[in-house]
Write a structure and sequence with these properties.
The structure holds 2 protein chains of 2 kinds. By secondary structure, chain A is of the alpha/beta class. Chain A has 3 domains: about 5-225, Pyruvate-ferredoxin oxidoreductase, PFOR, domain III (Pyruvate-ferredoxin Oxidoreductase, domain 3, 3-Layer(aba) Sandwich), CATH 3.40.920.10; about 235-420, Rossmann fold (3-Layer(aba) Sandwich); about 510-610, Rossmann fold, CATH 3.40.50. In chain A, α13 runs parallel beside α14 (about 315-330) and α19 (about 520-535) packs across α22. In chain B, the strands form 3 sheets. Chain B has an 8-stranded mixed beta sheet, with helices on both faces. A 3-stranded antiparallel beta sheet of chain B has the order 10-11-12. By secondary structure, chain B is α/β, with parallel strands linked by helices. Classes of the chains: A alpha/beta, B alpha/beta.
C-alpha cells in the first residue's frame, strides 16, 4: 500500500518532545518546527525546561520538554494537550501525563524504561499500566539498541552514539507527519561541518527512525496542510530575539548607537546574548557586574547620547528600581525590558507569570511614573521593543517593556518587516542657539525636555537625581517640587496622544468582554474565536499599552454586560483597572502556577459564566 | 562665554554658575580648584568633559563644573561613568566619589571598573567619615574610631584604597592631599593622560565631622617628615632636611637615615611607577605613619589595554568582515522562506 493513500488529513496537531535535560529535546523540537514552518504551517512552540542545567538524570525534575502546535489554520498557542508525546524516559511520562489528550500517541524508548529509571520517576513497575495508558496508541521502541546497531560500523564513541537517539525519535515523527528530511540534514551538514562522522551518524539515526516508522505499521501518517497565511517572506522567531531585533531596528531608525548594559538572568538572557552577537551592526553590549550596574551603565550611555537598553527579569527589576527613579528624575530615555517569571524572590526562574505588573507600575520611591507597555506574542516583541524605544526617545522618558518567559522562549513564523515601512524616530535633540541651554526646558506639546549630547559645543549642563528647577538648578522650594512632580507625570500621560486605540477582537458589544494583557493573548484569542464560532457573544480586549492607557478604554468597556480579566497572577491588572475605571465591575480569572492558561479552562469558565445568567 | 575651538582655558572657564554649598573650610573647595586648574592644561575642549558622581558631599562636584555633568545615585558612579565612556570614547570622563560612595555601597562597581580598565579618571575624596549623613564611620575609618554609629569605637578594619585598587588589577594609583594644589594639579593631569582607569585618593579634610583626621601626617609642621612625594626615576628621599629614605630590607620597606651606617643615596630605592609587578608599589601604597611616611604622588602607572579601546577595535574588526550590514540584512538572514 502506498503511503499517500493511507494518509489522514488533520487541521492541527500538538506534539510534545520530552526527555532528560541532556537528551537534546530542545534541538529536536526546534528542527521539527523549522521544518513545519518551511512547509507552510502556522505554528507556535513552547520550550519548557528545568532551572537546573543537568538535574539528576532520570528524575521528573530533570525533564526538558518542547511543544510544537502546528496547523492548517491560524495557530496562537502551543496547545493545551498533546496529540503525540515522545518520551525518552519514564520521568517524561510522569511529567507529561496531565498534558496529553486521551487516546494520544506515545512514542517511548523502551530501552530506557529500566527498573532503575522507572523507580527514579516514582513508578513501581510499568508506567504505562500505572497511568492507565494501555488503551492509548503506545509505540514502544528500543531506540537505544537500534541506534547502537545502526551506528556500529562508524567507530564512534558510545557517548556520541547515544546522542543521536533524539534524531531517531525525530525521524519517526517526521514519518508520522509526512515531512521532508532535507532541512534537518542540511542543518547537520552546517552544524557539524568539521566532524563528518557526526553528520553521518545523525543522518543514519534520523533515517533509521523514519524507516522504522514506516515499517512497524502501527502509525497512521497524518498530513497537516499549509495554512493560508499572508504572502511574503517569513522566518521563525522567538520573543527574546525579536525583542533584541526591535531595539536594533529602532536604533537604525533613530540614527543612534545601541547600547545594552545588562546582567545574565533567566529567562531574559537571550536578549543580551543576541545583542552581544550583533557587533556586525555596531551594537555595544556591556555585561555588567550586577543588575544595578547594568542599568546604570545604560543610563550613562543614554546621557552620552545612545539608545540605551537594559534587560532583566523580576528579581533584577527590583534591583534596578532606584536607577529607574534616576532616569525618571534626570528625564533620560531608556528601555527596561522585564521578561517576567514566577516570583516572588527567585521563585520559578524558568516558568512564566505576569506578576510583575505592579512592580513595573509602582515599584520605586517617590512619584515615579514611567511608560509601561507589554508585548503579547513572540513575534510582536519586535514591534513593542521598537515602540518602547520610540516612546523613550521621543518623549525623553524611561519605558518599561514587559514580556514573559512564555513568549520570550516561544517561537512562531513571522512575516519579515521591511525597514522602509517602519516609522522614523526623532529624538528631541538640543541644538546650540543664541539662547542659553537649560536642561529642563520642554517641548510644549509633549512636555519632553531637549537632549543635549556631551561633546556638543556650548550645551554643557548638569543633570542628576536631586529636585531642580526648569533651569536645572538644585531646588528644595516646596512649590517647585510639586510643579516638577506634576510635569513629569503629565509628560508620561501625554504619550497617550502617540499610541493607538484599544482594539476589540469580535463584535464591539456583547454579553462578555474578555480582558487580558501581554503574553496571554494567544490563549485568549483562541478561546474567543472558538466561543464566537459556538455562537457566544464574547469579545476580547487584549492590552499592550498599560501606562498610559489608550484613550478609548471606557468606550470599549461600556458596551459589554460583563467584564472578566484573565491574568497569570492574583489580579494585578484587574485592580489597576478598578483604580482607573471605577464605574465597571471586573470579574477575575487568575492562575499562578508558572504555566500558561489552557484554552479549555478559559472556555469552560466563560461558558459557565454565560450560562449561569 | 568661551567659544568652541578655544583650547586655551583659564580655571574660570570651568566654573559653573551654581552657588557652592560645601561647608566653609571643607577640603572639597581646594580639590575643585585643583581640578579646574588642571583641566586648562590638557588640550581637551570643554565640551568633551563629562563629570559623573554618586552621592555624598564630594558628589555635588559636577554641579560646580561648567562641563557636562551627571549627579547619579549612591555608589553607582563607576557604572554610570563606564557607560558614558563606552558609549562615547571621545569624551574625557571623570568620576567624583568618596570613601563611602566608592568603597561601601559602590565597592562592587568600583573594583569592576578598575578591573576592566575603562578609561575614566576616578577622584576619591577620602575623609574617613560619612559627612552628608552627619558623621558615621566609613570603610576607611581607623579601627576604634568613635562616631555616631560606633559610640564605643569601630570593631572593623578599614580598607586601604591603594591596596584595593592594586588588588582589583588597577593600573594607575596616586595619592595627594586636598590642600596641596600644586601636587594635586600635576597628578590630575597625569591621571587624565593615562589611558585606562586612574584612581587618585585625595586625603581630604571634613571640617565638621572628622576635622584634622589627616593632620598627623599632612599638617604643615610635620608633613615633610611624615610624607614622601614619589617621583618617577628618583630615589625615595623625604624629610625636612631630605635626610631620610626608603630601602628594601629583606621583604619589607625600611626607613633609613642618610649618612648613618654608611647609607648613601645610592642605597635607596628608586621609584618606578611603570613597573608591571606591583610588589614595591603595593608596599608604598600601604605605608602608614608612624612606621613609615605616607606616600604621595603617582605610585603606580602602568600601560595596558583599555576596555573602551578593545571594544572599539572589536567592533571595527567584526564589522569589516560582516555579511550583515544593516537591519534588513539581519531580518533576512538564516532560514527564511517565501509564502506565495
Amino acid at each position: 500500500m502506498s503511503k499517500s493513500s493511507q494518509i489522514v488529513e488533520k487541521e492541527e496537531v500538538v506534539i510534545r518532545f520530552s526527555g532528560d535535560s541532556g537528551d537534546g529535546m530542545q534541538l529536536t523540537g526546534t528542527l521539527f518546527s523549522d521544518t513545519a514552518a518551511l512547509y507552510g504551517n502556522d505554528l507556535v512552540t513552547f520550550p519548557d525546561y528545568p532551572a537546573e542545567i543537568r538535574a539528576p538524570q532520570g528524575t521528573v525534575g530533570g525533564v526538558s520538554g518542547f511543544t510544537v502546535h502546528l496547523g492548517h489554520s491560524e495557530i496562537n498557542t502551543p496547545g493545551d494537550y498533546a496529540d503525540v508525546l515522545v518520551a525518552m524516559n519514564p520521568a517524561a511520562i510522569k511529567a507529561n501525563v496531565r498534558w496529553i489528550k486521551a487516546g494520544c500517541t506515545i512514542i517511548y524508548d523502551k530501552d530506557n524504561f529500566t527498573d532503575k529509571n522507572i523507580e527514579k520517576a516514582g513508578y513501581i513497575s510499568d508506567p504505562i499500566k500505572e497511568e492507565k495508558l494501555e488503551d492509548y496508541n503506545i509505540i514502544a521502541v528500543n531506540i537505544t539498541s537500534i541506534v547502537k546497531e545502526a551506528l556500529k560500523d562508524l567507530g564512534l564513541d558510545p557517548k556520541s552514539v547515544l546522542r543521536t537517539k533524539n534524531m531517531f525519535a525525530l525521524g519517526m515523527v517526521y514519518w508520522l507527519f509526512d515531512r521532508d528530511l532535507q532541512y534537518t540534514e542540511e542543518y547537520f551538514d552546517k552544524k557539524f561541518k568539521s566532524k563528518p562522522e557526526v553528520i553521518e551518524a545523525n543522518k543514519i539515526a534520523l533515517r533509521a527512525g523514519y524507516y522504522y516508522g514506516e515499517t512497524i505499521e502501527a502509525l497512521t501518517p497524518v498530513r497537516i496542510n499549509p495554512a493560508p497565511i499572508a504572502k511574503g517572506k517569513y522566518r521563525n522567531i522567538n520573543g527574546n530575539t525579536a525583542t533584541a531585533w526591535g531595539f536594533i531596528a529602532a536604533s537604525e531608525k533613530a540614527g543612534l548607537n545601541l547600547f545594552i548594559g545588562s546582567y545574565p538572568i533567566t529567562p531574559a538572557t537571550g536578549i543580551l546574548e543576541e545583542l552581544a552577537a550583533r557587533k556586525d551592526l555596531g551594537v555595544k553590549s556591556f555585561q555588567a557586574e550586577d543588575e544595578i550596574a547594568g542599568i546604570c551603565s545604560a543610563l550613562g550611555a543614554s546621557f552620552a547620547g545612545n539608545l540605551a537598553v537594559t534587560s532583566t527579569s523580576g528579581p533584577g527589576l527590583a534591583l534596578k528600581s532606584e536607577a529607574i527613579g534616576l532616569a525618571v528624575m534626570a528625564e533620560l530615555p531608556i528601555v527596561i525590558v522585564n521578561v517576567q517569571r514566577g516570583g516572588p524572590s527567585t521563585g520559578l526562574p524558568t516558568k512564566t507569570e505576569q506578576s510583575d505588573l505592579m512592580q513595573a507600575l509602582y515599584g520605586r520611591n517617590g512619584e515615579s511614573p514611567v511608560v509601561v507597555i507589554a508585548a503579547s506574542t513572540p513575534s510582536n516583541c519586535f514591534h513593542f521593543a521598537f515602540e518602547a524605544a520610540r516612546i523613550a526617545l521621543e518623549h525623553m522618558t524611561p519605558v518599561l517593556l514587559l514580556t514573559d518567559g512564555f513568549i520570550a522562549n516561544g517561537s512562531e513564523p513571522w512575516r519579515i518587516p521591511k525597514m522602509k515601512d517602519l516609522p522614523a524616530i526623532k529624538p528631541p535633540k538640543a541644538v546650540k542657539t543664541d539662547e542659553p541651554y537649560y536642561p529642563y526646558f520642554r517641548d510644549p506639546e509633549r512636555l519632553s525636555r531637549f537632549w543635549a549630547i556631551p561633546g556638543t559645543v556650548g550645551l554643557e549642563h548638569r543633570i542628576g537625581g536631586l529636585e531642580k528647577t526648569m533651569k536645572g538648578t538644585v531646588s528644595y522650594v516646596p512649590e517647585n517640587h510639586e510643579e516638577m512632580v506634576k510635569i513629569r507625570a503629565e509628560k508620561v500621560e501625554k504619550v497617550v496622544e502617540k499610541i493607538p486605540d484599544l482594539t476589540v477582537f469580535g463584535e464591539a458589544s456583547g454579553d462578555l468582554l474578555m480582558v487580558g494583557w501581554g503574553g496571554t493573548y494567544g490563549h485568549l484569542v483562541t478561546s474567543a474565536r472558538e466561543l464566537q464560532a459556538d455562537g457566544f457573544k464574547v469579545s476580547l480586549a487584549s492590552f499592550n499599552y498599560i501606562k498610559p492607557f489608550p484613550k478609548n478604554v471606557r468606550e470599549v468597556f461600556k458596551k459589554f454586560k460583563r467584564i472578566v480579566v484573565f491574568e497569570l497572577n492574583l489580579g494585578q491588572f484587574a485592580d489597576y483597572l478598578r483604580m482607573n475605571y471605577q464605574e465597571f465591575t471586573y470579574e477575575q480569572f487568575n492562575k499562578v502556577q508558572g504555566v500558561p492558561f489552557t484554552v479549555k479552562e478559559i472556555k469552560d469558565y466563560c461558558i459557565k459564566l454565560l450560562e449561569e445568567k | 562665554m568661551a567659544e568652541a575651538v578655544v583650547t586655551q582655558y583659564t580655571a574660570k572657564d570651568f566654573k559653573s554658575d551654581q552657588e557652592i554649598r560645601w561647608c566653609p573650610g571643607c577640603g572639597d573647595h581646594a580639590i575643585l580648584s585643583s581640578v579646574q586648574k588642571s583641566l586648562t592644561d590638557l588640550g581637551i575642549s570643554r565640551e568633551k568633559y563629562a563629570f559623573i558622581s554618586g552621592i555624598g558631599c564630594s558628589s555635588r562636584f559636577p554641579y560646580y563644573m561648567n562641563t557636562y555633568g551627571f549627579h547619579g545615585i549612591h555608589g553607582r558612579a563607576s557604572a554610570i561613568a563606564s557607560g558614558v565612556k563606552i558609549a562615547n570614547p571621545e569624551l574625557s570622563v571623570w568620576q567624583i566619589t568618596g570613601d563611602g560612595d566608592a568603597l561601601a555601597i559602590g565597592g562592587n562597581h568600583f573594583i569592576h571598573a578598575i578591573r576592566r580598565n575603562v578609561d575614566i579618571n576616578i577622584i576619591l575624596f577620602n575623609n574617613e567619615i560619612y559627612g552628608l549623613t552627619k558623621g558615621q564611620y566609613s570603610p576607611t575609618s581607623t579601627k576604634g574610631l568613635v562616631t555616631k554609629t560606633s559610640p564605643f569605637g569601630t570593631v572593623e578594619d578599614p580598607f586601604s584604597v591603594g591596596e584595593l585598587v592594586i588588588g582589583a588589577k588597577g593600573k594607575f594609583f596616586a595619592r595627594t592631599v586636598d590642600s596641596n594644589i600644586a601636587l594635586s594639579t600635576q597628578i590630575y593631569g597625569e591621571a587624565a593622560r593615562h589611558k585606562g582607569a586612574s584612581v587618585i585618593e585625595v586625603l581630604q579634610n571634613c571640617v565638621i565631622f572628622n576635622d584634622g583626621i589627616h593632620d598627623v601626617v599632612v599638617d604643615k609642621e610635620v608633613r615633610d617628615e611624615r610624607t614622601i612625594i614619589l617621583k618617577q626615576g628618583e630615589p625615595m628621599i623625604f624629610g625636612k632636611n631630605r635626610d631620610k629614605g626608603l630601602i628594601l630590607d629583606g621583604l619589607k620597606l625600611k626607613v633609613v637615615t642618610l649618612g648613618e651606617k654608611g647609607i648613601t643615596e645610592k642605597n635607596l630605592l628608586v621609584h618606578d611607577a611603570t613597573e608591571q609587578n606591583p610588589g614595591i608599589q603595593y608596599m608604598l601604597a600601604n605605608m602608614r605613619y608612624p612606621e613609615y611616611p605616607v606616600a604621595l604622588g603617582v605610585i603606580r602607572s602602568v600601560v595596558a589595554q583599555t576596555y573602551d579601546r578593545d571594544l572599539t577595535e572589536q567592533l571595527k574588526n567584526v564589522k569589516a568582515s560582516a555579511k550583515i550590514k544593516n537591519m534588513d540584512d539581519l531580518l533576512n538572514s538564516g532560514s527564511v522562506w517565501d509564502v506565495e
